[in-house]
Amino acid sequence: MNTTIDETENPFFSNNKKGSEIKGKFIIGITQLAVLTIITVLFIILGIIIYEGREKFSWEFISSFPTNGMTEGGIFPALIGTFILVIVMSIAAVPFGTITAIYLTEYAKENSKFAAAVRFSVRTLAVVPSIIFGLFGLGFFIQFVGGGIDKAFSGGELHWGQPNILWASLTMALLTLPVIIVSVEEALKTIPRELREASLALGATKWQTIKNIVLPGSISGIMTGTILAVSRGAGEVAPILFTGAAYYLATLPGSLSDQFMNLGYHIYIMATQSSDVEKTMPIQFATTLVLLILTLSLNLVAVIIRSRIRRRVK
Amino acid sequence: MKDLKKDIKIEVNDLSLYYGEKKALNEISMVIPKNKVTALIGPSGCGKSTFLRCINRMNDLIPDVKITGSMLVEGVDIYDKNVDVVNIRKKIGMVFQKSNPFPKSIYENVAYGPKINGIKIKTELDEIVETSLRQAAIWDEVKDRLGDSAMGLSGGQQQRLCIARTLAVSPDIILMDEPASALDPISTSKIEELVHELKEQYTIIIVTHNMQQAARTSDYTAFFYLGQLIEIGKTNTIFTKPEQKQTEDYITGRFG
Predict the structure, then answer these.
(1) Are B67 and B250 a contacting pair, CB within 8 Å?
(2) Rounded Cα–Cα distance for residues A273 and A276 (Å)
(3) What's the CA gap between A281 and B79, in Å, rounded?
(4) Which end of chain A has fewer CB atoms within 10 angstroms, the N or the C?
(5) Do A204 and B116 touch (CB under 8 A)?
(6) E strand or H helix at B58, and its extent?
(7) What is the separation of C-alpha A76 from the centre of its chain, rounded to a whole number of angstroms?
(8) Cross-chain CB nearest to B87 (options A110, A203, A213)
């Protein structure tokens, strides 16, 4: 009796087995190649920056002021300026963005025209070029609001009606608002309806449900959004070009009405307007390195916070 | 059903529910007796879960829903304009088909309701948590790990935790929407036993698509079909000598 399986008749057997295997391997290969390319490019970029900036990069560099017409010295004021900018920007954008996201996700009715308008504005704001925010900051915050304050309180004497760290931060806050709103919205949406229902079925109000169940559950998403926004804020230059960033300041900003120096802006100045571009090359690279380390460590902190929260919840 | 007025917990009068234009519940009228288990049975889509959710006004959460008629709980129409829906839900608790514990500790899950109601003193909360977990027949299994996450419990344990959570706010009525349908037979029988014990103190309404479960656990049974209440009566009667032919057809499995 013939006990071998007839390959041409059994439906589980394929006569193209070799072909589909090769195709599969090919796709895997292409994917691996793509990942390899990305990693290589990343390492090349990092490599160049680290190599070119290594001689200037030191503790002294980070902690001292620029000297000699900005061709020597450090970037301390730019670092501090960036920090302050990012902090004020976050204070302005994160609570406001979170509340907006809560409104859109939890309170807005299905067919609410107001909610639709808000959503449309957020999406549109997200694609506006950065320089437009800068122009808006100049026209609205500096000239209109700042100028208005000056007219009302100091009889026209110029105080708030000029570029400073407050207006620059608020401009940046507008820029990063869509990022925060969308991240928080996404985070809120991950809380399943069943949990909300369970809370309401126990006699909790909507706000109690949001406060005790939805928000705590979306903290990691909110943090991610904030970190993303902060990363952007640390690096964007266009919006602060005419709203507060300064070429050189001898002192650190002492109040919100002072101007400030900024890492990203500093790189731009070094590369285009310094008295000796060749000589300042190492400074440019070292500043870039500092900015990169700043952004990367911010992201690292976010990852750590998120995994800690996840572990607690589990 | 000729029950004395004081034995009636809920009185439903011509309750209809519309999803937009579509009428999902058709003038339901019935009474639910106090301290008994009433089962709602019927094929999928017959409206039994929708009706259950009307009792604690969970359908309010769905946009485009309109409800007409009245539902009197101990004489008060819960759909009256002046009624605070939050208070209703404290008196009428619900256990859902798929257990939905909060991603918090076992203790925090049970203490959630009381805390929402303003109870802050730890000893009070501890007592409520223990009582509720005991009533839900799960205290012995979790008493040494109240701080552990509720997500680490098995399906059956999670469901009993949800029951404890509901009991912690001291409701009068407990609604159960197919509470054991996602559970294995052993957990299911534990839940059924629990239902039997709880009815001494609470009025229980349970939706089930499992007829044997309805026959085992309930005192009264209501048969729904296509959004209408076809028949309601003592469980024994419904399952042995139903009055309506549709009821009989369903009971005997002619359609499902």
Answers:
(1) no
(2) 8
(3) 75
(4) N
(5) yes
(6) none
(7) 22
(8) A203
Contacting A with CB below 8 Å, chain B residues are 56, 58, 61, 63-64, 86-90, 93-94, 96, 98, 100-104, 112-113, 116-117, 149, 151-152, 162, 165-166, 169
Is residue A109 pLDDT above 50, yes or no? Answer: yes
The answer to whether A259 and A244 are in contact (CB under 8 A) is yes
**Got the DSSP string for A148-180?**
HHHHHHSTT-SSSSS--HHHHHHHHHHHHHHHH
> In whole angstroms, how large is the CA radius of gyration of chain B?
18
Q: Cβ of A203 and B169 within 8 Å? A: yes
Q: Nearest-CA distance from A109 to chain B in Å?
A: 8
DSSP secondary structure string, B16-39? EEEETTEEEEEEEEEEEETTSEEE
Q: Which two tokens stand for residue A28?
A: 């895997």
Assign B17 to helix, strand or coil.
Answer: strand
- The CB density around residue A206, as the number of other CB atoms within 10 Å, is 15
Neighboring chain A residues of B151 at a CB cutoff of 8 Å: 313-314
Mean pLDDT score of chain B: 91
C-beta separation of B168 from B114 below 8 A: yes
Interval B146-197: pLDDT, tens: 999 999 999 999 999 999 999 999 999 999 999 988 888 888 988 999 999 9
Contact A110 B63 (CB under 8 A): yes
Which two tokens mark A234? 């640390």
Whole-prediction pTM: 0.80
Side-chain half-sphere exposure of B169, counting CA atoms within 13 A: 31
